[in-house]
Fold this protein.
Amino acid sequence: MSLLSYLLLAATASYCFTTLFAFPMEGLGTHRNCQCVTTSTAPIPSRMFQRIEILPPGAHCRKIEILITKKDNKVICIDPKAPWINKFITRVMSK
């Protein structure tokens, strides 16, 4: 193999490696950052919940995020280590 062939092979391998690790695993165009900048540990009555989302760690964010949308459409980020949310999730999952 000539020097030019080795350089072309190295450039191609470098490009493939960069492309593979530069984009999030969820696919192109879906990159987003963590949704929660701050979290709350204050209990929220479940009757005020409209929706609860549990986002696992991934390419977008390295931590678990729990987002509660209340009936007034306010979104609150809950600390995943808050005891009350863990009890709530356990209770819901056991049903």
Notes: Residues 1-31 form one domain. The first strand starts at residue 49 and ends at 55. Residues 37 and 77 are 8 Å apart (CA to CA). DSSP finds two helices and three strands in the chain.
